[in-house]
Specification:
Number of helices: 15
Distance between the termini: 41 Å
Helix content: 25-40%
Structural class: alpha/beta
Number of domains: 2
CATH architecture of the largest domain: 3-Layer(aba) Sandwich
Largest sheet: 7 strands, mixed
Shape: globular
CATH superfamily of the largest domain: Type I PLP-dependent aspartate aminotransferase-like (Major domain)
Length: about 425
């Protein structure tokens, strides 16, 4: 395991870079993972050597190569997510794009127009449905929080004959750990509802996602795995995909346009083709496939074990520090990739501490502070902001040690 992790670590150029004379200590992978060199190389190769028109628009050799490459990337995403077929995969710019697509295409009815969210949902999931609720198109309900986790019993009681969709993040981006997606799928389906799973924080260190546990739809973002920005995929189970109505149309989504009886008639393509309007991010999809291939070569079981070890080590180091509190239970946090802490010592300023981390001798330490786009969780828990450290395969115990040293020094200065 150690050899494979060490080999993977060498493929992230940013780790060896210096900014204003300081070396990077990167503990912000929950926001975005540093970019994999071979992914950047693949995107560059694709743009410069192919760069033609995909999407079955042209039939020359270059276009055929583009389309073949694009479908291979779709197959890689399908395999990664646990889809039954590549046709259940829609390429997106990430989870935000995926949820907007799902929310605006979902077949809500007068009898089933309720959406139940967990209190851990990222704004990428919350806001598209909140907007629909404000427009009077759906009713939105949010389940309660319990021990920094979603209260599944309460969630179960909230779902019923009017529930159309349940949304649950697979791993919280603020409180860490992971959620019981199989149990959530069972309770949603028992009520006749569908389940959407946000795999943004789960996929990078576990591999796969909600589709493997019974979710009807799931999404992940490529940039959180080391692929380029504006890459990702939405999985939609075949029977649900057939019921979605595309909210965005254009080139590449049309099977036939005819004119009769004084009006135009448009016949749209089915399956994923109806949801990928316009020229797609072909080079990004190719780079995403290369990223998945490289991480799978390392082995997600190895990545998971490595990250769990880093979380465990960080928890042990934090336990003896007075003036801060770790949020969540150890047993839950070990299943995730991040730790959030809140200050308890008088005079501790989170923004000031963030600046302090950027001014360490010979290095700067990158963490995330604030609400982390997790407003529902902050409102439910009463915490206005946290300090979040998060890990990926390239992190080492030394990274944690640098952070702990800086934290202790800041507390002493107070």
């Amino acid at each position: 395991m150690k050899d494979k992790i060490a080999a993977l670590r060498k493929e992230y150029p940013a780790l060896g870079s210096a900014f204003e004379g300081r070396r990077l200590v990167y503990l912000d992978s929950a926001c975005t993972v540093l970019k994999l060199k071979r992914a950047a190389d693949e995107q560059r190769r694709h743009l410069l050597e192919l760069g033609g028109c995909g999407g079955k628009r042209s039939f020359h050799a270059l276009a055929a190569a583009m389309e073949e490459n694009f479908y291979a990337a779709r197959s890689a995403a399908a395999s990664f997510m646990g889809a039954e077929a590549p046709e259940e995969i829609i390429f997106t710019a990430g989870v935000t794009d995926a949820v907007n697509l799902l929310a605006n295409s979902f077949p809500f009815t007068a009898g089933r127009n309720e959406v139940v969210l967990s209190p851990l949902e990222h704004n990428a999931v919350f806001l598209p449905f909140e907007r629909l609720a404000c427009a009077g198109r759906i009713k939105l309900r949010v389940a309660p929080l319990k021990n920094m986790r979603v209260d599944l019993e309460a969630l179960d009681k909230m779902t019923g004959p009017k529930t159309a969709l349940v949304c649950l993040t697979h791993a919280s981006n603020i409180f860490g750990g992971r959620e019981d997606m199989a149990a959530a799928a069972d309770l949603a389906h028992a009520a006749g509802a569908r389940l959407f799973c946000d795999d943004a924080q789960y996929a990078p260190t576990h591999g796969g996602g909600g589709a493997q546990y019974g979710a009807d739809a799931a999404a992940f973002s490529g940039h959180k795995l080391g692929a380029p920005y504006c890459t990702g995929a939405l999985y939609v189970k075949r029977d649900l995909l057939a019921r979605l109505r595309p909210s965005r149309v254009g080139g590449g989504t049309v099977e036939e346009v005819s004119f009769a009886g004084g009006r135009y008639k448009v016949k749209y393509l089915g399956s994923y083709q109806g949801f990928e309007a316009g020229v797609q991010n072909y080079s990004g999809a190719s780079a995403l496939a290369v990223t998945l291939e490289r991480l799978e070569k390392c082995g997600f079981e190895n990545i998971r074990a490595h990250v769990s070890g880093l979380v465990d080590g960080a928890l042990k180091s934090l336990e003896g520090i007075r003036g801060i509190r770790v949020l969540g239970r150890r047993e839950d946090l070990l299943e995730g990739s991040l730790i959030s802490i809140v200050p308890e010592k008088k005079g501790f300023s989170v923004p000031d501490f963030n600046l302090f981390l950027n001014q360490q001798r010979g290095r700067f330490i990158a963490v995330r502070t604030g609400r982390h786009c997790a407003d529902l969780a902050c409102l439910a828990s009463g915490y206005r902001e946290t300090i979040r450290i998060s890990f990926f395969a390239y992190n080492t115990p030394d990274d944690t040690a640098f952070f702990i040293q800086a934290l202790k020094k800041y507390l002493q200065l107070l």
